Structures
1.
Amino acid sequence: MSKKRIFILGVGAVGKNLLLNIKNNTMNFNFDEHFRIIGAADSRSIILGEEGISPENLLSAKMEGALENAGSKTARLPNPDEVDILIDASTASKDGLRETNIYKDFLLAGKSVVTSNKSPLANFWPEVMNFSKEGKGNILYESTVCGGLPLFNMVRSSLHGMKIMQFSGIVNLTTNYILEIMRRGGRMDEAIQDAIREGFAETDYSDDVTGLDSARKSIIISNSLFGTEFRLRNLKYEGITSSIEFENGSRKMLLSTVTRRDDEIIVESRIRNVNKNENFYNLGPKSMAYELKPSGRSAIFVSEDFDGPVETSLGVLSDIIALA
Ligand SMILES: NC(=O)c1ccc[n+]([C@@H]2O[C@H](COP(=O)([O-])OP(=O)(O)OC[C@H]3O[C@@H](n4cnc5c(N)ncnc54)[C@H](OP(=O)(O)O)[C@@H]3O)[C@@H](O)[C@H]2O)c1
């Protein structure tokens, strides 16, 4: 059996944790039997090593600040015929165009794309899905929303045919952490620094604070779970400021909500009061959680105490393993 060739775009917090998890055999799966990493890129270099690059070598080269120490430096990304699976753990571009153009080549050539990067799917969902359909290349995007908390794959595998009436969730940890620290009397700038230090803030944390990250995810949720073809540019969304006021007996959260009302699907990404009788109220400040309301049955609530780059990288790894 020939091993599937993997190229990794982005060796930052998620990319490095992905390599660490492969190296440490965190999953109950023999990675080397099925896959071979043949290259990687960061913002400065692209490297290739057709015989296979070990996660150890790639990690230490990245830590030394010279990716090229792990392979031969090249000027361009590999052609789709040189790769079977493209992993996108790169920084989200504002308009998603750079990533979408790369996905286009790979998906149309029948190659798989696994991504934790939201921007291409939030901006170009219809195009990306059409490339996938036309070229028969898989696009897997579990960790674009809620990081490592299972959502899309779980719905796909365990709720076959279920009509979802509403999704609501904490999909951006940073903003909800900041809101909770502020409610407890802390300062917004200090909470942002905590989020950067612990690695759960976006590289450009303004994407979190302005609500852009949560808005991108809301679009992906709507398109994936409710069958819409929305684009980020059509969504009015809210972010947080240091002047937010809190009321006694309730919390404030930036929630992503998608609601099915008759034939209409309504997407929102805004701050609202969360009262004591709601599941979200009792969560810790670093929790990620969502509630699904399917038709004809009680609501499903899924939560975890923390989600950062480690959890996200495990979501990416799970998508890769699904392609074995
Ligand atoms: N961190 C999380 O918990 C989390 C959760 C869910 C989703 N995500 C998403 O996952 C992606 C990666 O997140 P992260 O936290 O790992 O970000 P990060 O630490 O900033 O790493 C981003 C990586 O992308 C590289 N990069 C930037 N521009 C590039 C380009 N044009 N071509 C190739 N590589 C490029 C960077 O290169 P340099 O190393 O040279 O800077 C870096 O290695 C982002 O899209 C993020 O939104 C992250």
2.
Amino acid sequence: MTHSALKVRPRALSTVFLDRDGVLNQKMPEGSYVRSVADFHPLPGVAEAIARLNRAGVRVVVVSNQRGIALGLYIAADVRAIHEAFQKHLEGSGARVDGFYFCPHDKGQCNCRKPLPGLFDQAVAEFPQITAASSAMLGDSLSDIEFGRRLGMLTVFIAGAEEHRSPSAEDARALADLRCPSLAEAVEALLQNP
Ligand SMILES: [Mg+2]
Ligand SMILES: [Zn+2]
């Protein structure tokens, strides 16, 4: 974390928006999708990082593009089952996600596919206290960082595993306010007191 990055940190961080694939769980190779609970492998340190956010009183919201539904590769119920299994996994570490939101649509057909703001609006509908100014968006794709920037959030690029990085990841890295190797390090940086 650079010194200049500290200046863009929100005064009080109230909500962290997390991308799912590549941030919470192992990203599949480009063009492959997490279709079922069997494909969902939480990354090391993720449960502990979420527990830290919980203990700090920071709301944790997952926002995920799930275009595989539009492509007919899996259905919304599969995504919900994955999120339920992940929540159970987190329980073991005393951690919890406050809300899961996902876009089931193909490109150019909705207002909720990141970087469009629809998933933010859905979260605000459930948690009216959320403001973009007190939120951070953490993700490994350009669509995540653009989503956060357009809304005026602090943005954090999570680098993840090099072999699974998307072609536009370099743009995402350059555009983000902060860059971290993993969720655990991003949470460490966000919760640090200056
Ligand atoms: Mg991702
Ligand atoms: Zn959508």
